[in-house]
Specification:
The complex is a heterodimer.
Chain A (H helix, E strand, L loop, with lengths): L3 H13 L12 H4 L9 H24 L1 H7 L1 H14 L14 H7 L9 H15 L9 H5 L17 E6 L3 H6 L13 E8 L2 E6 L2 H11 L4 H8 L5 H18 L27
Antiparallel strand pairs in A: 1-2, 2-3
Helix pairs in contact in A: 1-3, 3-5, 4-5, 4-7, 6-7, 10-11, 11-12
Chain B lengths: L9 E4 L5 H6 L7 E4 L9 H12 L2 E4 L13 H14 L4 E4 L2 E4 L2 E7 L5 H18 L4 E3 L14 H12 L2 E5 H11 L3 H7 L5 E7 L1 E4 L2 E4 L7 H14 L3 E5 L7 H26 L1
Parallel strand pairs in B: 1-2, 1-12, 2-3, 3-4, 4-7, 7-8, 8-9, 9-12
Antiparallel strand pairs in B: 5-6, 10-11
């Protein structure tokens, strides 16, 4: 007989040791000795029911969270890769919502999957869409509120993103793969790509950000006033066009629903991070 | 020590397949059961659906990751998130499972079986008490389907479940399908299990489908309730009278009408049993 903690440690280790449908079945002998073997299954067969469910359930979760990665890889390669991921990154959160937290980095560090060097970026996009999908709610700034601002106040106006906005820096145009009619397509060339991903209502959107918008967006995310956004745009645009472009961008962001109301202090939680903006840790 | 929850009738699980119906107000049912962890998020569509659901009927929270039998410390962040969700949703009650699912900081996301020993009994009772203190309310604990038992168990599962409920002063969520699945897999008498539990502890019943998987039964929640499980439900209602009953259908989820028809069947079975009991006592 094993103490409860020892039993549980050996049990979980047996399930997670080599996840996968064809994993070897050399379960812990001390654990097997504790399992009643009545019926046709026997102790190893009974433990294997749990081992198969461990793998099957978690691979299914990752397939739901990364459907485009799964489609590109195909069923067998996706299962093999996610099983390797689960071995390296077993779940450490009570909710399976966070099971895929390290998947994109795992793919990046795994070495380019043969013929699919864009896979980590595609995974980053899919994970970011999830983060945006269930980010905190905030009714966005609407044009009417902006129109009520007197012209003299504009230079000092600051804007803040809604919580459901992320900015992604990628080495591949993963959004093109994501939007492709054929989810198995691999026809894409490397290209430095900045995407903004946001939610309006319940729907998640993404769009590529060009150089001008990227400059303005970086200013927005730091809480810079409208005048500072215009100043920075003058570095990439003729001075006469900077203010006009800043206003046009602002209007587009408002129409997309990605700016917080000016009255809402919660919106001051601007995302931060390097390259991507991870969701906040939560219970 | 006593346990009591309201009678809610016959409900279904709140699942994404039917979120559009919940949002447009056409998902009419006695009550919903929501998986707690699915709503421990900051915002978006799932929480909007949950808010809409609780505006139309009672909602209960059913967890899968409390890991009551684990020898890891209870997750403080999980308990805080659950308490916040409970405060937000004001569920009719909160439940989780008599099992463990994590150790060493790693989660299996499965409902793993406990050995039914005095050590495990004291451990689970202690943890249920802590959870109830943290939530400020009694919880219900559910028997799980299992595929193995431990040779050093000192008591059958039904005695263990009853002892936890008494020792921790909590309720029981009796999953009739799980009783049947485990009874077949381990060769015990399912009716004996149902008869052994104190009826005043049973606050909810689960009904679900299962599948024959070669030499054993697998708890799949992907189909209609089996005839033999309906028979076991009849026994439970005969013993307990009216108990809030929920259809769990989590995979291959059918059309709303099919799901509701299963809940209506449970209502009819309950009415049939209550009528028989009334006639017998007249």
């Amino acid at each position: 007989m094993l103490p409860l903690r020892e039993l549980q440690t050996r049990f979980l280790r047996s399930l997670a040791a080599a996840p996968g449908p064809s994993a070897p079945k050399d379960f812990d002998p001390a654990l097997l000795a504790l399992v009643e073997g009545g019926g046709a299954l026997g102790p190893a067969g009974r433990l294997d029911v749990y081992a198969q469910m461990y793998c099957g359930r978690l691979v299914d979760v990752l397939r739901d969270d990364f459907p485009r990665v799964a489609a590109v890889l195909g069923a067998d390669r996706f299962t093999a890769l996610t099983c390797a991921y689960l071995t390296r990154h077993p779940s450490t959160h009570p909710s399976v919502r966070w099971l895929g937290s390290d998947f994109a980095d795992f793919l990046a560090g795994h070495g380019p999957v043969e013929g699919l060097p864009f896979l980590a970026d595609l995974a980053r996009l899919e994970w970011t869409r999830l983060a945006v999908f269930d980010a905190a709610d905030l009714a966005p700034l609407r044009v009417e509120e902006l129109r009520a601002v007197p012209p003299s106040a504009w230079p000092r106006l600051t804007f803040h993103p809604i919580p459901a906005l992320r900015v992604l820096h990628l080495g591949w145009p993963a959004h093109d793969l994501w939007a492709a009619d054929d989810p198995t397509t691999t026809a894409v060339r490397p290209a430095q790509t900045v995407l903004r991903v946001w939610r309006d209502g319940f729907d998640v959107y993404q769009t590529r950000v060009d150089t001008v918008e990227h400059v303005a967006l970086k200013q927005l995310l730091t809480g810079a006033p409208f005048a500072a956004i215009c100043d920075r745009l003058e570095a990439v645009l003729p001075p006469a066009g900077a203010a006009r472009e800043a206003a046009a961008l602002l209007l587009r962001w408002v129409e997309d629903g990605m700016l917080a109301p000016m009255s809402d202090r919660r919106a001051r939680r601007a995302p931060s991070g390097k390259g991507k903006y991870p969701p906040p840790q939560r219970g | 020590m006593a346990f009591s929850v309201p009678y809610l009738g016959h409900g279904v699980g709140l699942r994404t397949t039917h979120f559009p119906r919940v949002l447009d107000g056409t998902a009419r049912v006695d009550w919903f059961e929501a998986i707690s962890e699915n709503f421990m998020i900051d915002g978006g569509r799932p929480l909007a659906v949950l808010e809409r659901a609780r505006g139309s009927c009672p909602v209960v929270l059913h967890g899968v990751s409390l890991s009551l039998g684990s020898t890891d410390p209870l997750s403080e962040s999980y308990l805080r998130a659950l308490r916040a969700l409970v405060d937000r949703v004001a569920p009719a009650w909160v439940s989780d499972h008599l099992c463990w699912g994590s150790v060493g900081g790693h989660y299996a996301h499965d409902l793993l079986p406990l050995p039914y020993t005095e050590e495990a009994l004291a451990h689970v009772i202690d943890r249920v008490r802590i959870v109830q203190d943290r939530l400020g309310r009694q919880i219900l604990i559910e028997n799980v389907s299992s595929y193995l038992t431990f040779a050093h168990s000192a008591m059958p599962e039904w005695e263990f479940l009853a002892a936890v409920a008494e020792g921790a002063d909590c309720g029981i969520l009796l999953d009739v399908n799980n009783v049947y699945v485990s009874a077949v897999n381990h060769g015990f008498d399912a009716e004996r299990y149902v008869r052994a539990l104190a009826i005043d502890r049973i606050g909810q019943i689960h009904l679900a489908g299962h599948r024959q998987q070669g030499t054993y039964l697998l708890d799949t929640h992907d189909g209609h309730v089996a005839p033999v499980v309906w028979d076991l439900y009849r026994l439970a209602v005969r013993r307990c009278g009216q108990v809030s009953t929920l259809i769990e259908w989590d995979d291959r989820i059918p059309e709303w009408a099919v799901l509701c028809a299963e809940a209506e069947r449970a209502r009819a079975v309950e009415a049939e049993m209550l009528e028989q009991a009334h006639a017998a006592s007249a």
